[in-house]
Amino acid sequence: METSVASPCIKICQIDPQSNLCTGCLRTLDEIATWSVMNDEEKRRTMAAVERRRKNDANTEDTGQSW
C-alpha cells in the first residue's frame, strides 16, 4: 500500500503575478486545483517540481534576480 503524499500547502495562498506560482507552496493554480484528484505518482511529480522551483528561487535570491 502506498503512503499518501502530503500537500505542500502552508496556508499562505497568494499567487505571484510574475511567476504565476503560489508564494506559499510554489505550485501553479492548476496543480493546486487538481491536487485532490491526483494519484500519488502525480503528486510526487508535482512535489519534485516544487522542490526544483524552491531551489531555483534560492538561487535567484543569491544572485539578486527576480523570478
From TrEMBL:
Segments of skewed composition (Basic and acidic residues): 48-58
Coiled coil spans: none
Region (Disordered): 48-67
Cross-referenced InterPro entries: DUF1289
Listed transmembrane segments: none
PANTHER family the UniProt entry points to: DUF1289 DOMAIN-CONTAINING PROTEIN
Protein name: DUF1289 domain-containing protein
